[in-house]
Specification:
This protein is α+β, with helices and mostly antiparallel strands and about 400 residues long. The strands form six sheets. A five-stranded antiparallel sheet has the order 11-9-15-21-20. About 25% of the residues lie in helices and about 45% in strands.
């Protein structure tokens, strides 16, 4: 006989029937229209068959009538599956709790990103967004419609022409288009360009105003380089003046360099973290290194493209030692000079050019090299100076 339909949903059992009157038992099954399949004789007084659960409970009168006995060998189908599941109720509860936690975590805002802003501070945009309900750990279903958020943020943030809000999983992106402002025409008051230091002029270019000095002329601090007075008119002098300036440096450089390096020894620690809370799992014990540096790595759990705020954190406590490297006086002098040159460029602009250098004095004492060096630098020497009118004029 063929297997009845929906057997897996209804549930079935494989049974073994024993008795001297098995043939009569089979006839009784046919009379009662009880469906059985995979009927297979095992011995003269024993046979194997499969039957649905509902019909299995109808066998008792027939077994009693024919003096046969039955033994269940195998159970199959959805009813038995649910019985096994409900027997493991704690496993089922944990499984349901896991999916509930994942659903809750995926229903919250974990990250708010701001894009497109140049003049408006990101903190101001995030503050306005928080007032509208956009902030980390907010439920996504509590957020207003995106069109409403866009209009409200555009109204709150001055200097924006449009603010767009989009959601991607647990991330909210706020895209800002700043309003274009017309350039303010600066009203410059009359002024001179004067020398900010003693120098020898090497280059002068007057875009506006009248040059008062010439190339190779020595000028003192405060000397007018380009005047803003032109006859009866006064203008805001503008131009470029470069000159040779002398900088005297006192340099102190050690002959022994001390540098911290890793020895290769390390102690590892492992943590489970959730948000800002971390629970140490292994790696207990004190660190016996005299000097150490800790390197931290986070490995968050991910679901699809989202990173969840929980996972595994590893710490490597690396042993550090200090190495001493002796250098020759020549190398020490060179290192000191390079450091002084970097300082000159930092103070006088990247366009400053060191023309030459002269060591005025050099001495080695107590493991250090002491030098006094004169640098000749070509640099911008002009600075603005307003033209002040006398009260009597």
């Amino acid at each position: 006989m063929k297997t009845p339909g929906l057997t897996k949903l209804r549930g079935s059992v494989k049974v073994t029937v024993r008795g001297e009157r098995i043939e009569i038992f089979i006839n009784e099954l046919a009379k009662e229209r009880i469906e059985v399949w995979n009927l297979r004789p095992l011995a003269p007084d024993r046979m194997e068959m499969e039957i649905v659960i509902s019909d299995y409970f109808r066998l008792r009168p027939l077994l009693k009538k024919t003096s046969c006995r039955v033994h269940v060998d195998k159970r199959a189908g959805l009813p038995f599956f649910w019985i096994r599941i409900f027997r493991r109720k704690w496993f089922l509860a944990g499984f349901a709790l896991f999916f509930l936690i994942i659903f809750a975590l995926s229903s919250m805002v974990w990250d708010v990103e701001v894009k497109g802003n140049k003049k408006i501070a990101t903190e101001d945009i995030l503050l306005a967004a928080r007032e509208e309900g956009i902030y980390p750990f907010q439920w996504i279903f509590r957020l207003p419609e995106q069109d409403k958020l866009s209009k409200d943020l555009t109204r709150k943030l001055k200097g924006t022409s449009w603010v767009g809000v989009s959601k991607s999983g647990t991330k909210v992106t706020i895209e800002v288009v700043e309003a274009a402002k017309p350039k303010n025409t600066e009203m410059l008051s009359p002024r001179h360009l004067i020398s900010k230091t003693d120098a020898v002029v090497t280059h002068i270019f007057a875009e506006r105003g009248q040059p008062e000095v010439s190339k190779n002329q020595r000028v003192k601090k405060g000397s007018v380089l380009i005047t803003g007075v032109q006859g009866d008119f006064q203008v805001a002098a503008k131009g470029e003046v470069r000159g040779l300036v002398w900088h005297e440096y006192t340099i102190e450089a050690p002959l022994v360099l001390r540098q911290k390096v890793f020895t290769g020894e390390k102690k590892e620690r492992g943590y489970l973290y959730f948000g800002d809370t971390a629970v140490q799992i292994w790696g207990y014990g004190k660190v016996k290194y005299e000097q150490s540096q800790t390197l931290t790595r986070l490995d968050p759990l991910t679901w699809r493209e989202w990173k969840l705020p929980l996972g595994w954190m590893s710490e490597d406590v690396m042993e550090v030692t200090e190495l001493e490297t002796k250098q020759s006086p020549e190398m020490t002098i060179q290192r000191g000079l390079e450091r002084a040159k970097l300082d000159i460029l930092a103070k006088n602009g990247a366009d400053a050019r060191i023309v030459q250098q002269k060591i005025l004095h050099e001495n080695t004492d107590n493991g250090k090299v002491y030098m006094k060096v004169l640098f000749e630098v070509e640099q911008n020497i002009a600075e603005e100076f307003p033209i002040v009118h006398n009260q009597g004029e």
